[in-house]
Amino acid sequence: NAEYGKQWYQRRVRVCVLAESTDEKNIPKLVEALCKEHNINLIKIDDAKKLGEWTGLCKIDKEGLARKVVRCSCAVIHDFGKESQALDMINDHFKRTVTGDA
Prior knowledge:
Elements: H1 2-9, E1 15-19, H2 26-38, E2 41-45, H3 48-54, E3 59-60, E4 66-67, E5 74-77, H4 85-99
Parallel strand pairs: 1-2
Antiparallel strand pairs: 1-5, 3-4
């Protein structure tokens, strides 16, 4: 998508989420290389449909369940918003991963 391409180019990406179940086999290699080159934290998940749901590429029915979920290979976060306990947990995870304490 052109929008996250722009975020990469402007070096605004803070975290990248990559679905390993993508149909295009070159995407994971490219994304991993970009993350490594630009020192961007990478989270890998197993299912592209799950990532599609997380990013809102679906319809939510009246029971609150996701329907018609579109697969998503990669998503980026460029702004975490306000400080929160969830953000602290994510930052702690990446600190442990970098230092090898995970």
